[in-house]
Amino acid sequence: MKLTGLPARLYEAYNHHDPLAAARLYDAGATHEEIAQGSSRQGPEAIADGLRRFFQWFPDAHWQPQTQITDPNGPVAITYLLTATLQAPMGPLAARGQRLSLRGVHVLLLGGELIRGSADYWDAATFHRQMNTTTTTGETA
């Protein structure tokens, strides 16, 4: 799938593991939400910090865009497949080379030449299962 415009530049920055290039695509007041985690980052600097941390955990991360849905009067949605290997401790989660293959959707709110906001939707249960965070009682770490 060949993306166009800002989405193409965002995924290029992601796949080059360049947090600063990704952050420069965001408006100064932009917010990025991680829906599955219930967290958000405000502003390009915080967005870059989150990506730096992510690339420490998953230095081989690769996003493969699947579909781009564009509404001239609204947001842009991109479905993707993220593949990666956990290679550094992620909080209490030990890195044992766990492989990640996670489908998701980014929704981008565009404003002129910059991203005004983004939300990333992915399945937390799939993530936890692949990272082997399920305990013997069935609870996740």
Describe this structure in words.
The protein has about 140 residues and is of the alpha+beta class. It is about 25% helix and about 40% strand. The protein has a six-stranded mixed sheet. The C terminus is likely disordered.
Provide key terms for this protein.
141 residues, alpha+beta, six-stranded mixed beta sheet, 4 helices, 26% helix, globular
How are helices and strands ordered from N to C? HHEEHEEEEH
Distance between the termini: 35 Å
Structural class: alpha+beta
Strand order, largest beta sheet: 2-1-6-5-4-3
Strand content: 35-45%
Main beta-sheet annotation: 6 strands, mixed
Q: How many DSSP H or I helices?
A: 4
Number of strands: 6
Overall 3D form: globular
| Fraction of helical residues | 25-40%
Low-confidence stretches: 135-141
Global mean pLDDT: 92
Radius of gyration: 15 Å
Q: Could you provide a short overview of the structure?
A:
The chain is 26% helix and 38% strand. The chain has 141 residues and is an alpha+beta fold. The C terminus is likely disordered.
